[in-house]
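[job 4471] stage=fold_predict status=RUNNING
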Amino acid sequence: MLGWYDKQNAESLARIATAMAAIAETVADMECSLADIRFSLSIPGSLTLKLLEKNMSTISFKVVLPTLLDTDVVKRELTVQVADQPPVVETLDAAAAESAGYSGPQDAPVHLSLTDIDDAGNRSEASILDAALVDVFPPAKPGELSLVETGETNP
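[job 4471] inference complete, writing structure tokens
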């Protein structure tokens, strides 16, 4: 015959067993999701255009590269296409934070693609950005204002 103390232990063990079964089910679901997460992490990340200057109707820019997600990446391949110009492919060191400078006409479409390449030559899925070279540069501040007194009127 079980005493009060033994009943409490049995109920606690039953709750622990139920919780462990739920945890095991969650872990199994997580393991299935890990494959998806690993796949997502193999994509280099988001790219950003960094506008440098405007020269009348030409916009200069650099590409800001995302942080590396894998430690075995040895180089990065950046493809930049401005408007209808042929694409330019730039091979960058894995530690590069941004690209060389590029330029294109104001309002031109820009297509960017970044692929990471590991030490075995495996290529990641490309991270892609389609943007436009929009003029976001305000005109220079006007010069100093002045006041010219032109006369006096007596009432």
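[job 4471] summary: Residues 22 and 28 are 10 Å apart (CA to CA).
[job 4471] exit 0
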